[in-house]
Amino acid sequence: MTTCGEFIVRLLESYGVDTIFGIPGVHTVELYRGLADSPIRHVTPRHEQGAGFMADGYARVTGKPGACFIITGPGMTNILTAMGQAYADSIPMLVISSVNQTDQLAMGDGRLHELPSQRNMTAGVAAFSHTVLTPAQLPQVMARAFAVFNSARPRPVHIEIPIDVISMPIDAALSAKAWPLPSRPAPAAVAIKQAADWLAAAKSPAIVLGGGAVEGAAEALALAEHLDAPVVHTVNAKGILPPGHKLRAGENMALPPIRKLLESADVVLAVGTEFGETEMYPDARPLQLQGKLIRIDLDPEQLMRGLPADCPITADAKLALSDLNRQLASHKHTDRNGAARAAETFKAAATHWWPAVGVHQRIADVILKTLPDVIMVGDSTEPVYALNQSYQAPTPRAYFNSSTGYGTLGYGLPAGIGAKLAAPKRPVVVLAGDGGLQFTIGELAAAVEAEVPVIVFLWNNHGYGEIKTYMQNRQIKPIGVDIFTPDFQVIAKGFGCAAVHVENLDQLPQQLTEATKRKVPTIIEMRPQA
Amino acid sequence: MGANQIGGHAAISILETYGVDTVFGIPGVHTLDLYRGIADRKMRHIGVRHEQGAGFMADGYARASGKPGVCCLITGPGLLNAATPIGQAYSDSVPVLVLCSVNASKDLGKGRGRLHEISDQRAAIAPMTAFARTIYEAGELPQAVADAYKVFETGRPRPVVLEMPLDMLSAPADLGRPQRLKAEAPKAKPEDLAAAAKLIDAARTPLVIAGGGTVDCAPALRAFVEKSGALCVTTTAGKGVFPDSHPASLGASLSLPATQDYLAKADLVIAIGTEMSETDSWNDFVTFNGKLIRIDLDAYTLTRDYEPTVGLLAEAGATLQALMPMIAAKAPVDLDKAAAIRTRNRSGLTPLQQKHAKVLDAIRAAVPADGVISTDMTQIAYTANTYFTCEEPRTWLHPVGFGTLGYAMPAAIGAKIACPDRDVVAIAGDAGFLFTVQDLGTAVEQNLALPIIVWNNDLLAQIQMDMVRLDIGEIGVRPRNPNYLALAEAFGCRAVRPDSLSGLTQVIKEAFRADGPTLIEVHENAAYLA
Ligand SMILES: Cc1ncc(C[n+]2csc(CCOP(=O)(O)OP(=O)(O)O)c2C)c(N)n1
Ligand SMILES: Cc1ncc(C[n+]2csc(CCOP(=O)(O)OP(=O)(O)O)c2C)c(N)n1
Ligand SMILES: [Mg+2]
Ligand SMILES: [Mg+2]
After folding, report:
1. What is the rounded CA–CA span in Å between residue A152 and residue A150?
2. Ligand 2 pocket, residue B102 CB under 6 Å
3. CA angle B366, B371, B373 (to 5 degrees)
């Protein structure tokens, strides 16, 4: 006999899930029945928030959904913030949880782990949330979840299974095979023609690439080069143009030169971006585009948010970009002065960087030189806000952080663990502040246990530096920002990790190299004074 | 009050009107103007290391003192990080008031990808609150806070969330001298009181179940039990409201067979301020054959699951006092039985529970009667819920219904801050402790004389037992634990591993007098427990 719990594990295997993050509890033990004999790896975080962030980091590196097993009630409330971050950044995440038994749902009897409605709570941070009332629903619900991950704008999906259903027997005829998934939408030919005509005729086009363009990275690069158009990346798009590319015009659409580039372009092509506030720091006034705007997005609703487009195209970025390349192939490549415009914009934009950007970029240069294929995973901390402006990632999916969108703290370490599990051969460096690292410090134990040697670059300024600066700028007496700071060296060692201080940048390469040889995490701590 | 007051000031001054003098939180860009109010009004602010800690501290503050605990949180991740404590406070009926920011009113519901945005944070949190409300103008604050206090003081207390858009927080606002609005608790109808008195007088073997709703009327409860000749059992939330040393006490033993046998035969059950829920009896439903009087402030609870013969929708203390002159004084018939039940309840301990009992005795010996014991979801606390004796209410804190991990230490911090003159101790398991370990920093920063006992079995013990019992195979239940002593020392905390039971008592006593927290590790395999 196969139970529903065992069947779920088999379904997940069929969809290619290879890692599950979770803390087992009385309510979820039956989900674990199938896991012992499954090739799926189970990683145990120290808090469900860690599970969610790990799944997120895993997903951003692989493009595949990160999967979690979560208990009813407190497990689900614990993972909410991680779902919020994944929702805001369009990251695929599968959260499978238990819920109280069917005949007790919503009764408010004060049962263990009970919530009035778990589904209502997660609805705002998930593409959908489904309660499985009979095991026979499972193949279809799982297919629907993977359709979201694969074929729509990816977002978290929550599937909850009442504890009586988890242990029910499965009808032997029910197949655990993955369903063929829907293809992604191809662009309408008329829309592509329209866009191609405008682009072909453009004299000063510019391109904005968002996180949604990552899977069409090669096509985006080819198109930019063919059009000779300067490119602006959002944080989640970094790496689409290789470092040092002549068309890179910079990041942060609020910097006046970048704003000017886009506002004065005769055609702007924006791919997979929501023009979010966190891409426009500190001045989130919407762009006033003079020229035409072509937007490509997988989500038609999204095309109606942010800037209204003259030509909104609902399509998979890769498909739309290759169609555009094909349409434009017959047009001769014309020199649109792209490299010069990009260089000029970039140079002028850099004069707007605040002093810390230079400091952190020098650190990043050292990291990148020592570990050329590094994946940098960041928290909401000064170095991250700085590098969002200046850093050039070696590849797509190699620079991401929680300062975008939802903007939470505590993301760096667990997301870095997820990233390292997804790409064990690449070095993963977590950029964390002392405040953010404390949020999820317990996950050091999970990393030691799972032998995940992430490298944590800890920027220790003894407090919530970013917020302190804000308070000072707004004439508020600093309160709650100069926090007591523990000794991270001793903490790290207490957890069985390595920990070092670096006094200056010259010491960094050697410490990074040594860290890559370890089986456990290394904390490399640096003070602003250094 | 005066010139240049803004919404942030108004929010804080209305809290002052209600006697709030302490708030828990972490500032962020979105709450700067709220913190302007905190700084200018000199409200005490307890800065935490994760908003989950803020929520649990507010809970512990409220449970220990009876005063609502208040948090100030940022939009999105700040609020959702507190979702678990809010859920815990919901299921245990604890008054917690959350003030948080939300995106500007013109942006609400637009999905513009603004910082910290989710589609509808109010809807996400609402299921776990008495109510969650958006405050568009400061002028709405007096009514909103009055409504919250109506819930806290005259209803079954539950969390309340007030979210304030950024524009409201920064807009000019002068509330003048806001008045405290008073609400009356419902009173029982005379004819219902008379019917109840008649049942009480007719009963031969009445049994009182005293729940968390009675903690503020211990003297009235005791007088009532003594006059009516009843025996008294408490729920976990009611622990101590009726002294365990009283001859009519059955302790907090609803889950134990001897008590359940007695309950089944009692000819009258008087359930006061209790949901009569699963997490007290650990049975789907308790069975009894006698008549039932229920007293509760909440109409829904009054009739849920068990239809009362007489239901009194009223506050416990006032109702008991009103009943006193109406009932005849009777000698208790079953004092001998009570003694026998107590003995039986304390005898059937498994070898593991006997170990727990030794440790619990050593703790009891150190903690004075009014001392507060804050516990987590750990096996030793499950044993203690029935075994540990309490003489006073508001001394036993346990995350009963929602059953979350990571509660004990931050709730103890909140309790100690609320009641600096009482001794407070936390008891957490090795895994539960790590859920919120970062707030050790808060305890150090606040110089709290707080012993924190980590009950270490290097296991998620309850879950491991279930997995073995259900033949699932062990997954994710044998954590690679840190060195707890080193970890504590890194936080600037004293750390001790006592080597005898008397040593344990001694270090707890010392910790009560220390100038900061003390982590005390007790390992299940310690030689002195063999
Ligand atoms: C859950 C959550 N709480 C609060 C904030 C507000 N916040 C943003 S950055 C920051 C400071 C973080 O301190 P640290 O990690 O030490 O970085 P630093 O700014 O000092 O570099 C805070 C408190 C947030 N973004 N998310
Ligand atoms: C947030 C949350 N996640 C998971 C659980 C399920 N759970 C209940 S008890 C427990 C084990 C806790 O281990 P520990 O703190 O070491 O205590 P022990 O039972 O070993 O004494 C777990 C994982 C829970 N109650 N809450
Ligand atoms: Mg800092
Ligand atoms: Mg344990």
Report:
1. 6
2. no
3. 85
CB B65 within 8 A of CB B418: yes
**Ligand 2 lined by B431 (C-beta under 6 Å):** yes
For residue B424, the CA-to-ligand 4 centroid distance in Å is 22
A164 touches chain B (CB under 8 A): no
Q: Where are the alpha helices (DSSP H) in B66-140?
A: 77-81, 83-91, 121-125
Q: Is B484 on the interface with A (CB under 8 A)?
A: yes
- What ligand is nearest to the CA atom of residue A45? 2
Residues with CB under 5 A from ligand 3 (ion): A 433-435, 461, 465
Sheet with A375-378: strands ordered across: A399-401, A375-378, A428-433, A455-459, A522-526, A498-501
ipTM of the modeled complex = 0.91
Longest C-alpha distance within chain A, in Å?
72
Which tokens belong to A162?
Answer: 């009442």
Optimal mutation site among B115, B447, B459, B467, interface A, most CBs of chain A within 10 A: B115
Q: Nearest-CA neighbor of B442 among B420, B416, B422, B423?
A: B416
- β partners of residue B131: B160
What residue's CA is closest to ligand 1, atom 12? A464
- What lines the ligand 1 site, CB under 6 Å? A 379-382, 407-409, 433-436, 459, 461, 463-467; B 26, 28, 51, 74, 77-78, 81
**Is the CB of B84 less than 8 angstroms away from the CB of A449?**
no
* CA quadruple B186, B187, B191, B193: dihedral sign: positive
- Using an 8 Å CB-CB cutoff, list chain B residues near A80: 80, 83, 124
- DSSP class of residue A287 equals P
Q: How many CB pairs under 8 A join A and B?
A: 292
| Sequence-distant (≥ 6) Cβ neighbours of residue A5 within 8 angstroms | A30, A31, A32, A33, A34, A166, A167
Residue B472, token pair as written in the block: 């699932």
The candidate with the shortest Cα–Cα distance to B270, out of B219, B218, B323, is B323
Min Cα–Cα distance to chain B from A198, Å: 27
User: Where do the H-state alpha helices sit in B42-140?
Assistant: 51-65, 77-81, 83-91, 121-125
Of B114, B95, B171, residue with least CA distance to B139: B171
A60 touches chain B (CB under 8 A): no
Sequence letter at residue A496: G
Cα–Cα distance measured from residue B422 to residue B369, given in angstroms and rounded to the nearest whole number: 10
Q: Does ligand 2 come within 6 angstroms of the Cβ of A78?
A: yes
Q: Across the interface, do A112 and B278 touch by the CB < 8 Å criterion?
A: yes
User: What tokens were used for A108?
Assistant: 């408010």
Determine the Cα–Cα distance for residues A72 and A91; give it in Å rounded to an integer. Answer: 23
Q: What is the pLDDT along chain A (530 residues), one digit of tens a residue?
A: 899 999 999 999 999 999 999 999 999 999 999 898 899 999 999 999 999 999 999 999 999 999 999 999 999 999 999 999 999 999 999 999 999 999 999 888 889 999 989 999 999 899 999 999 999 999 999 999 999 999 999 999 999 999 999 999 999 999 999 999 999 999 999 999 999 999 999 999 999 999 999 999 999 999 999 999 999 999 999 999 999 999 999 999 999 999 999 999 999 999 999 998 889 988 889 999 999 999 999 999 999 998 999 999 999 999 999 999 999 998 877 789 999 999 999 999 999 999 999 999 999 999 999 999 999 999 999 999 999 999 999 999 999 999 988 999 999 999 999 999 999 999 999 999 999 999 999 999 999 999 999 999 999 999 999 999 999 999 999 999 999 999 999 999 999 999 999 999 999 999 999 999 999 999 999 999 87
d(CA B331, CA B338): 14
In 3-state terms, what secondary structure has residue B424? strand
Distance CA B244, CA B396 (A): 13
